[in-house]
Amino acid sequence: MAYLLNLLSFLLVVTLFSHISASDSLYLVTFVPCNANSTCPQGNPANISQTFALNGTLNGNVTASVGEKITFILRTDVPEDPFIVCQLSKEPDFCSGIGFNNQFNTPINSTNHTTSVIFTKPGIYYYGSLKNPGMGGRITVFASLNTKSGSITATNTGVHNQFSTTMLLITIISLFGGIISN
Question: Which residue of 36, 73, 123, 127 is surrounded by the most CB atoms within 10 Å?
Fold first, then answer.
């Protein structure tokens, strides 16, 4: 009986962690060259010819759901173009010159720095450079997970691997506890 109870507890924990990891999205941010009037987003200054890319996609638009946590990991140094997530901007500015009250995160500009945002309301938000226009994209946040449509795909590998390790530990403890109680 104790073994069955441990097994049910384990299944409950697996379900809980699966739900948590499904609501986290991870994007790798790079700063890549682009061609003016071609691959550069609209508004990108011609003298810069670089822009942010998410998971290798130039000017990728992102979709999310209310309550979803989105984490951005900067994979390059961008001292002149801090990466930021904002609201109440316009295209093609993508956060350029946005005031402090409309910023969702502290700007990041160094390799492996991360920032996370949890959206609490549906709407249109942006990511991009705090200093230069045309270096970003749109984040559309829906009220429900079911209304999300095509956009670039997030990678959940970091979150998934962290939970996998936790799940392995819980499995071992549950099984060991079942053996001892018998």
Answer: 127
Low-confidence winner among 7-11, 59-63, 109-113, 116-120 (lowest mean pLDDT): 7-11
Strand 50-54 relative to strand 57-58, pairing: antiparallel
Which has the minimum average pLDDT: 32-46, 58-72, 144-158?
144-158
Contact present, 26 and 155 (Cβ < 8 Å): yes
φ and ψ at residue 44, rounded to 5 degrees: -65, 130
pLDDT 10s digits, 124-157: 999 999 998 888 899 999 997 555 444 444 544 3
Helices assigned H by DSSP within 56-154: none
Nearest to 49 by CA among 32, 25, 27: 32
**pTM reported for the whole predicted model:** 0.68
The DSSP symbol for 152 reads: P
- For 113-128, letters b (16+ CB in 10 Å) and e give bebebebeeeeebbbb
Burial of 95 (0-12, 13-18, 19+ CB in 10 A): buried
Question: In 3-state terms, what secondary structure has residue 80?
Answer: coil
**Residue 44: closest CA among 52, 36, 56:** 36
Instruction: Tell me how far apart the alpha carbons of residues 177 and 57 are, in angstroms, rounded to a whole number.
Output: 47
